[in-house]
Amino acid sequence: MSAAVLNFSVCRQQSEASSVRIRSNLKPFAVINCKLSNISRFSQSGTLCIQLSPNGLSRRPSTSAGFQMTLVDESIGRGKIVIKPSEILAYDLVQGPLVRWSYIADKSVPCPPTAILLHGILGSRKNWGTFARRLAQEFPNWQFLLVDLRCHGDSASITKTGPHTVASAALDVLKLLGHLRVTPRVIIGHSFGGKVALSMVEQAAKPLARPVRVWVLDATPGKVRAGRDGDDHPAELITFLSALPKEVVSKREVIHALVHEGFSNDVAQWVVTNLRQTNPSNSSPGFSWTFDLDGIAEMYQSYEETNLWEVVEDVPRGVHVNFLKAERSLHRWALGDLQRIHAAEEQAAEEGGGVEMHVLEDAGHWVHADNPDGLFRILSFSFQGV
Question: What is the DSSP code (8-state) at residue 292?
Fold first, then answer.
């Protein structure tokens, strides 16, 4: 069969061991024109999976952990408006080596057990990349959906109407799940993402599998209390970043400015991961932010104000909510919050639901960076027995 020119969108998966990087000048999930020589289109659904290896391209599926691209024909449904998942939120789908599934494939193929991982304010799906690949290696029949929430990462370029809130961010994720035809069995949210996870439960129980485990990492359901003086405060960080030029000369310049202002070097190093070169071909390229700071400021205000205690104190049947407190959290966990969670834990146990409290030792707020091994051990039981 001769080669054909087709329109594809890109969904990537890579293993921890893989050193392959396919970036060129393509934005993730942008629609591109691909000319693939010597590879036949073998499905009317337009799904084409190829395995990349040091020796080139192979059309034969492999159970070994490698780098896999799934190319999906976006021309399906001509004559009508089709909303593609990548037009809702930017995402990566990290699949275990035993998973052979695509949302565009035959609908009779059951969706594998899926977990979704949600980042915090000023973060991106990249924050979870290494951890998700580790989970995929340990639990090879699972897949892990990493998303950029609205106004963050590659989703910042996707037009979203306001208000920018915890609830609207949760609704975006639910819409994405619907278009991917995925019902997650585990939802993990860090900080702001933890409240997004709770809001998903509050807004729409139907798209969620039963049972579903929800993990709220270092966040409480109600009022957000800042940490001690000297800690990094997200609201102050957002305000400071908003005052910086939209384009900067170097990452080092931003790190120096943040540290000089009193923010920790760790936070400064993390923040500049959101800078992207504006003109890489130029001899002296500048950098611009990948996120929408105005939208993020609105989202953080919503995070501080949103109250989701009702979800925790009246947990829907089949939903298990787990709270994880970092031992050195930059957020102040009030005694009243802890007592309220423990009371909900006892009540849920009596009613057949589930609420549990966990503590991650030797970790600050950035739990998946500070103590990834401890976090892995705590989360692992959610993926066992499936």
Answer: -
Q: At residue 147, does pLDDT exceed 90?
A: yes
Closest alpha carbon to 242 in 305, 296, 304: 296
- Of 269, 127, 235, the C-alpha closest to 257 is 269
Residue 378: strand, helix, or coil: helix
3-class DSSP state of 173: helix
- For the stretch 299-315, pLDDT in tens is 999 999 999 999 998 88
Out of 28-42, 241-255, 268-282, 329-343, pick the least confident.
28-42
- Count Cα neighbours of 119 within 13 Å in the Cβ-side half-sphere: 26
Angle between the 372-380 and 129-138 helix axes, to the nearest 10 degrees?
A: 50
The shares of helix, strand and coil residues in the chain, as percent rounded to the nearest 5, are: 35, 20, 45
Q: Which helix (H) or strand (E) holds 51?
A: strand 47-53
Distance CA 373, CA 375 (A): 5
Alpha-carbon gap, residue 142 to 130, rounded angstroms: 15
Structure-token match 């993402």, residue found: 193
